[in-house]
Amino acid sequence: MSLCDRVAVDAKASEALVAWCRERYLSLPTSFDAERAIARYLGAHVSGDSATFGFWTPELLDHRVPEGDVFLEILSPLAPIDLTRSHQEIDFERVYLPVRRYEAHTFAVATGLRAGRRDRIGDFYALVWRDCDDQWQRILDPLAASLPFGAFAPAELYDLDAMQAARTDRDYYAARRNSEPHKFGPPTNILQIHVPTGTAGGTLASLARQFERLGERLRNNLPTEDSDAVYLGYDAVQLLPVEPTTVYETGPDFWHEHDRGDGRVSVTLMRPDTTNWGYDVVISGMATVNPVLLESGRPDELVDLAAVLHNFPEKPKMLILDVVYGHADNQGLKALNHHYFAGPNMYGQNLEYRNPAVRAILLEMQRRKVNFGADGVRVDGAQDFKWWDNSTQQLRHDDDYLQLMADIEQEVAGLRYRPWFIFEDGRPWPNEDWELSSSYRSVIEHQRDNDVFQWGPLTFAHNTPFLYTFWLSKYWRIKEILAHGDRWISGTANHDTLRRGTQVNPKLNVNTRLGSTRMDILDKAYDNPSVGLLTYAVLPGVPMDFLNASARASWGFIRNQDDQYGVKVVAEEAISLKWQVDDYAYSIPANFQRLKALGFETREELVRFMEFLPALVEVTDYALGEIASLLSAVEPPLAGPAPVTPAALKEVARAWMDDMHEYCNVVHSLATLDSAQANFMFSLRRFRRANPWLRDTLMAKDYFDYLQPINGRTVFAAVRHAPDGRQYFTLTHMEGDAAESLDPLSLPIPQLAGDGWELLLRTPSIDADYRGGEIVLHDSMGLMFTRASD
């Protein structure tokens, strides 16, 4: 049956939807209330044989487009689409269906459409309008449930009800129906994962299989391997953003069509294959999953991962999604109408939070995304949620919007619930004095819930624990954590801090006691046993570890879509060569194959090229032609493309990003993990999970200080008291010289008086026979003793 014969418009239902929309505006107290109600009907919804489509279309009013020139475009493939293929040519049938409008909203209800499911591809759709020159303009669906070819292509009609009905974690939700809405609280600790570098497969399906395998090993009482240990011992898994990101600035497009003129369209389809660290979003498509992360092309993979985590043996794991609504990349201007944007910022575009429709749609995007089965939400860059106050001529933080985000009620598997919330907010960042003036409590103090968390001061971006005096200089912040940190995320290793670490000038005062090479120094700084002991055994809050840091894999700003500024970005990232890549790593045949093919056969050759590039980017104010000419004139000649041209520079930049993306995958480092370190950190996580009271701030009878006099080293000493009276004494050598030997239990700390102390944990470099007494503590060494109450 042809598409024209199969599909029909339900005019009566379309008119009823328009009437309902009109009634919302007439009956609800505010326009925002109306927009929030209407937003639930935007996008595409499947119900039996019927499908409802809704779009917010103020651009049609801007251009004074009459209703007779606006249509719902349906595209149905005439041959099977294989979403696992990298390239294919498919013919589509196309029909245009009439729509109904009310002010800035456009609706259509149709029957006979094919909805996509896990095992089949559905029809594709968009809204189109015809201008006065008979040229067709397309409006994409920002609330789409499935975008197999990215946010800049027509969406797939998808049966979300079928996806939810097939969940295998329904018992997990049923067990929480004792009160509704259920409120998820904080976990004990968190593992942060970048999906594309988190497993060899780099997809959500691959990550789900990894946790499924780990779960089966636990069920069968199999021993824990070193490569297992870095994934285990966590109450929650937090994914870096899984939303659709930017696409290649100059192509190729993942959906490229040619109108055949006979009601059919020939479309060249490419499997999305961009690399991105996750934060370069275009806002459109935020309600679904980035197709790059989908092995099968089906959004069900995110539900599958949630189910595997929820069904994990011994204790379910929470799934936390990282959402980015504080900015849009400039590419977002091509995906959404201009009413979504409030002007440029350092990342791209500010969003127009004060527009009631935009405000409502962004919240609805969040609700639909979390309904995949997330238990928690981490909000990126909450300090960037701002609006312009004309009365005072200044930007104001939109704390009301942040409260609305935390208030959203989800419904999954019959359970109504509200997720646990984390806000990254370093206001007044990016002011120059932010490191001094930020309290990291701005959102906590404004939110109604008493379990809303923020990133703490040692978790925010600019932390460099591999520079001398870092820990002593941060002592005032540590004291704040001890006093206020029960609602902070703690730990120094995350996607932001590790990235910033790779950008530090290695000529600074680097703590060479951490390792013999820069790679060793960086790896140990962000996977440090004494820092782990401090974080897990002493500091309050919820510790978080970044998988790439725990696995001692590389990390950086990974984004291969740029054409205009790609060379500049690589120039800024090039310093990571000195921190994360040594001669041996570069020489491995599988590493940096693209750069080697361009002529950089050795690391030294690449380093020399990258020494010149950042300097020339700065002195020429990023004039690619001048940079290319100057690089071509270097004597002796540089390795790499010759002659150097702007096009060649862009090719080098793309090769760098693609090679680094592969190099950062944790699979390359798992086989070389230090068994003692991996298992020590695993034991710390198990200790924290067994002692959840450590999340609370220190009590008056607890103790924390550094040993004085300094004597060339920073050693922290802490005593914490459990609710049952048991004491835990921790000593951590954070940096500096070993100085003289000491007897930990003889230190002049009042809480240590008396007998009964037993050694509970020692960092890996301390001899296994040590039980107590005199010891010389070196950098990164630590001990924890415990004794029962009297």
From TrEMBL:
User: Has the keyword Metal-binding been applied to this entry?
Assistant: no
Stored InterPro entries: GH, GHL5
Q: What GO molecular-function term can you cite, just one?
A: hydrolase activity
- UniProt xrefs under Pfam families: GHL5
* Keywords of this entry: Hydrolase
Superkingdom of the source species = Bacteria
What protein is this chain from? Putative glycoside hydrolase-like family 5 (GHL5) protein
Q: Which organism is it from?
A: Chromatocurvus halotolerans
Q: What is the lineage of its organism?
A: Bacteria, Pseudomonadati, Pseudomonadota, Gammaproteobacteria, Cellvibrionales
